[in-house]
Amino acid sequence: MAVNANTEERGQFGSSLGFIMAAAGSAVGLGNIWRFPYLTAENGGGAFVFVYLICVLFIALPLLLNEIALGRRSRKNPIGAVRETGGNKFWQLAGVLCVLVCFFVFSYYSVIAGWTVGYIVTEIINIPVDFSEFVQTPLYVIPLTFLFILFTILIVLGGVSGGIEKAAKFLMPVLFLIIIFIAGRSVTLEGAEAGIQYYLNPDFSKINGTVVLQALGQAFFSMSVGWGLMITFGSYLPKESNIIQSAGWIAGMDTMVALLGGLMVFPALFALLSPDYLTDGPSLVFNVLPKVFAEMPGGHIIGALFFLLLMVAALTSTISMLEVPVSYLIDDRKWNRKKATWVVGIAAMILSVPSALSNIEGNFFANIEFTFLSNPVQGFFGAMDFIFGTFAVIVICLMLSLYTGWAQKISDYATELSYGAPGFKGPYKAAWMFFIKWVCPIVIILLILNMVGIFGAPQAA
């Protein structure tokens, strides 16, 4: 009876549509709508977009297929997936890193998501907010972070089909409707043409090593490869599901949201403010866009919709981040879903506090400074983001591609991909195996070497 109870706790997706929506939701997040526009602004506009699309197609998509295949083949969480398929303790470290990454990133990512909740309220009641003051007010930021984590907990408590799948089927269409509406409003503003030109017309002379590095890092971040999310979701898939088709939809939806995210920002920025704001970096969305909305008729309503969009995008990602450690506790520790979800969720709340406080000038958590693999790290939030949100993700991608490509028989995973996808054979199958065995590991190794300064000054992706 214990085994059956645990199987019920684990759950399974009720449909391919549910899997696509949930997996696309985990990929679509703040990385697409908050991170993508400011990285585009910092790295040459259209040139960055062009390189990013190449990275998604030839690196991130093969890795996405790899993780889903490993998950479905093993029917386990990231640690159990490697163990179940015969991986020794060394290769199981990739699974351990997946669980740690999801937990730690969930804690600080929820702080940013909490900002979006606050901005929804301030836009609705039409009160201008100074971003730098807002993030330095823990009385606002910490309760908003806890509230957002609570939203995530309540959805994951519902299980795979009853909670995650139902939420994704509702949240993803809402997200697309809002983003299409705001992007449509942005591109029809008078003077928007200059922003569209900057964003979609690549100047190839601006492509250099830094642009390629940043685009590759963003492709990993936005497609949710290297987190164990896709292994976990893949483990809930029945054998007859078409992974190839589903992965195509996931990559397509994720990329579409990123591209629409840019169309929301750049045309409005050029039309209503000034290109000078392109240098605002990570604060671009929170600092600049409320000013843009203020210049539009009914702008506070559009602003509230925009930050609702950000919150929904964040929620679709944090649901899957929480599910990874929860699935580990259900599979390996035989906890029930309720206990696992509450324990991990409350622990994430506690860990989110230092990240929230690290935005306050002079605070202990803001003053933390050290060097990690030749890269200077500033603040607790910055440390979490670089170590877990960037470096560990890239290491996981490398380990998983080496594991399935070399430590295992790659043909077994290609066969797994062909179940439910009879067209995946011949040159398609051979191409995927070639990319996992050779192209992805070589590109990732070069990326890591560049990050630690082998080719010059260290550059974080």
TrEMBL record:
The keyword Transmembrane helix applies. CDD domains: SLC6sbd_Tyt1-Like. SUPFAM superfamilies: SNF-like (SSF161070). It is a multi-pass membrane protein. It is found in: Membrane. Coiled coil: none annotated. The chain crosses the membrane at residues 12-34, 46-69, 90-109, 139-158, 170-192, 212-237, 257-278, 298-319, 340-360, 380-403, 434-457. InterPro entries: Na/ntran_symport, SNS_sf, YocR/YhdH-like. One of its GO terms (molecular function) is symporter activity. GO terms for cellular component: membrane. Its main location: membrane. Keywords: Membrane, Symport, Transmembrane, Transmembrane helix, Transport. PANTHER family: TRANSPORTER. Belongs to the sodium:neurotransmitter symporter (SNF) (TC 2.A.22) family. This is Transporter.
